[in-house]
Amino acid sequence: MRISAHRMALAAFSALAATTLFSAPAGATVFNQGISVHHDAYVAADGTVTLSGSYHCEQASPTGAMQIRATVVQEDGHRLSVGAEQPVCDGTERRWVATAPGRWVNVRPGHAVVTAELQEVRLSGLMPKSVATVARDTKDVEVRRH
Hints:
Layout: H1 5-17, E1 22-23, E2 34-37, E3 40-43, E4 49-56, E5 64-74, E6 79-83, E7 94-100, E8 110-124, E9 127-145
Parallel strand pairs: 1-9, 3-9
Antiparallel strand pairs: 2-4, 3-4, 4-7, 5-6, 5-8, 8-9
């Protein structure tokens, strides 16, 4: 499977953004951007975690791309950040789903806090220049066995 340089640059910058994030205040939106977290999350028998919600966004700037990042934190301190599928930014409300394979994941059934962020990655050529969180939602959720 061939991965485009643009997508590879976004993936690399997403990992960097997990540690260094330039973000707007919680609940902030820019233009017509929004994101929400569903009240339930799921963990499969093999440990695969599925988070979901909905979003709507307008087209990213010509020098940028949009991405969704979801983070789940449990009371025992376990934390997992995962990217969702590439958002379609046409103003329509859509569902997002983020799945993390269970091989290295340590999320268990029970209470958790999930934060979803709609982010705009601004590019300089093929290299990421900055990440701005344009919408954020945080909810207490119940992680259920799936």
